Amino acid sequence: MTLLASAPGWLTAILFLLLLLASLEDLWRLQIEDWLSAGIALGAFLALAVGGSTAGVWQNLLLFALVLGIGTLLFVRGWMGGGDVKLLAACALWFDLAQGWQMLVAVAIAGGLESLLVMSLRMLRRSEGLRRRIVWLRKEEDLPYGVAIGAGMIWMGLGVR
Fold it and tell me: What does the longest C-alpha to C-alpha distance in the chain come to?
């Protein structure tokens, strides 16, 4: 059982709030504050302390290390933002190896849908005014991937409850 499935409802609500804040901040500034990722990571440890079993926590830590390591390589190559890497790694703490790949697939699906939506909005001629005001609609800007991470995590959270 994942930490997300065993967490009390109030802690899951805090997790979802932090994910929503990270998504909105990424949409607004194309940045994610470190305190949001730290809060999500601390929430995982709190879920473990409140009711999770410590027997398989090594899997959560291994998944965290793998996501952080691979994400750092993606960041160095310029393929992923640093805030996105930290947010995804913090989210990985909520899952063991058996469920972690499902979370990564959920985030990838949400990222693909987000990419299609953003590309469509960027191509609209009528969105010239919006492109000047909304930074992520500009063709030269990156995708606010924190939105996909938040959506994938919430999708997983609703699916395991």
Answer: 56
Q: Where are the domains of the chain?
A: 3-160
Terminal CA-CA length for the chain: 11
Q: How far is the C-alpha of 41 from the C-alpha of 89, rounded, in Å?
A: 8
CA 69, 74, 77, 82: dihedral to nearest 10 degrees? -90
> DSSP secondary-structure letter at 137?
G
pLDDT in tens, 48-101: 888 767 778 899 999 999 999 999 999 999 999 999 999 999 999 999 999 999
Quick one: which of 3, 15, 24, 9 has its CA closest to 134? 24
| Type of residue at 79 | W
In this prediction the pTM is: 0.89
